[in-house]
């Protein structure tokens, strides 16, 4: 018998109809993500003695209430007069898959790998008639001996990881307390404020040039087998890594953030794995720009921006500090003016054939602004683990830096790494990574 048995697939609609004729345009940042999708899974323990199917029924009912505030999730895609995707809010619903898994959630997590985990996150590629295709899918998997997995997948065109996390949190709040604590906001990206326009300022060409180079590439998904691992770096080890990577001893110079130093660490180690002798492979960071643009955390839409990072070779003993400093410097330049430069350039240079944003360089993405462990569907049962996947796997690989469970230390982080299978084995043997004693949560047969 298979480890996971799929019982049924339903369509879940909102409990209140949407306003007739309502639609949402998609932004230039949305449209660039057309070739990607997100797959996320939350793992929960459950009360002992619960009848199978009971929690699934409860979650299905609360999902209908949640969807009243997320009309984009139940709508369908259409092209506008300019040939751009838009969301027709027609209450067509999202798809919900109900499943059962053998054993307990704890036993599952002891041996989970990429292939097994993706069995808990249903996804369907775009139907040849997009108007009949659901852009959001939820899979509820109850474990026969206790535990629950909630898998969410969605078209990246409509939502980034922050939106997806917000959606799950809203659903959890609706289930637990009967109301949505933080509803989403659907509105366009902000325009540049007229008073903020400095006529003597040069546009941020580094960022614009990077997007221009991506748009010009015709990359495709290869048949290379990819593996994904999840490593926990405890608070003391992250602090030790920060101390090693500090580029100056000046007391007024801020220390690098966990994202900056851990991205630098894996940039260095993956470069070695890929056979880069003296120096580092091409890498770009992916950051949520809501705070920079002054947007509310409830903004629903893509607000992630990619930017290329380059570091000069300064000797083997200074690779980590050099990589970290390069990331710090690029992030410091990604201010509101630079991001508005990019948005205006993308608006005036309409991209008819969206690129695969994760199809070339190594990607280091920050998910430090999300907190999936706040999603509590039952009192006393917070998630015990959460995984994020940005698909399809392509290019040089991907590193995602996530927060770890509350109570594990403010600096502790989970790193999810996706690389070609043959490179992953060598990465796990790297002396620099082993120096910081990470715990393997998900690996190649752990």
Automatic annotation (TrEMBL):
InterPro entries linked: CAT-like_dom_sf, Plant_Fungal_Acyltransferase
Question: What's the family?
Answer: Belongs to the plant acyltransferase family.
What's the protein called, per UniProt? Protein ECERIFERUM 26-like
């Amino acid at each position: 018998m298979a480890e996971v048995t799929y019982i049924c697939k339903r369509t879940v609609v909102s409990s209140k109809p949407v306003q007739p004729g309502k639609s949402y345009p998609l932004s230039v940042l949305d449209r660039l993500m057309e070739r990607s999708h997100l797959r996320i899974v939350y793992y929960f323990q459950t009360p002992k003695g619960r009848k199978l199917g009971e929690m699934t029924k409860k979650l299905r009912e609360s999902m209908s209430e949640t969807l009243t505030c997320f009309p984009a999730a139940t709508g369908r895609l259409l092209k506008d007069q300019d040939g751009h995707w838009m969301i027709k809010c027609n209450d067509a619903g999202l798809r919900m898959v109900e499943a059962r898994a053998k054993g307990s959630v704890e036993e599952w997590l002891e041996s989970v790998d990429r292939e097994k985990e993706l069995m808990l996150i249903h996804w369907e590629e775009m139907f040849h008639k997009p108007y009949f295709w659901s852009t959001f899918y939820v899979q509820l998997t109850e474990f026969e001996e206790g535990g629950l997995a909630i898998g969410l997948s969605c078209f990246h065109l409509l939502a980034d990881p922050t939106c997806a996390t917000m959606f799950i949190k809203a659903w959890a709040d609706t289930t637990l307390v009967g109301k949505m604590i933080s509803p989403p906001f659907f509105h366009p990206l902000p325009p540049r404020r007229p008073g903020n326009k400095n006529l003597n300022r040069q546009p941020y060409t580094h960022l614009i040039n990077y997007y221009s180079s991506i748009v010009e590439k015709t990359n495709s998904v290869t048949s290379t087998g990819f593996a994904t691992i999840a490593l926990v770096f405890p608070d003391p080890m992250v602090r030790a890594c920060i101390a090693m990577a500090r580029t100056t001893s000046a007391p007024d110079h801020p220390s690098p953030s966990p994202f900056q130093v851990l991205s630098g660490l894996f940039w260095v180690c993956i470069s070695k794995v890929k056979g880069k002798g003296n120096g580092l492979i091409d890498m770009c960071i992916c950051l949520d720009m809501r705070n920079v643009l002054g947007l509310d955390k409830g903004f629903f839409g893509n607000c992630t921006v990619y930017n290329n990072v380059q570091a000069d070779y300064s000797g083997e003993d200074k690779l980590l500090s050099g990589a970290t400093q390069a990331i710090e410097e690029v992030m410091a330049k990604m201010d509101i003016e630079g991001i508005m430069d990019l948005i205006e350039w993308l608006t005036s240079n309409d991209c008819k054939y969206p690129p695969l944003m994760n199809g070339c360089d190594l990607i280091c993405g920050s998910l430090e602004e999300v907190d999936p462990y706040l999603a509590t569907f039952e009192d006393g049962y917070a998630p015990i683990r959460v995984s994020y996947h940005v698909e399809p796997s392509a290019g040089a690989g991907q590193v995602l830096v996530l927060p770890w469970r509350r109570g594990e230390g403010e600096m502790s982080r989970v790193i999810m790494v996706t690389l070609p299978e043959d490179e992953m084995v060598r990465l796990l043997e790297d002396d620099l990574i082993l120096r910081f004693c990470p715990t393997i949560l998900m690996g190649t047969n752990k």
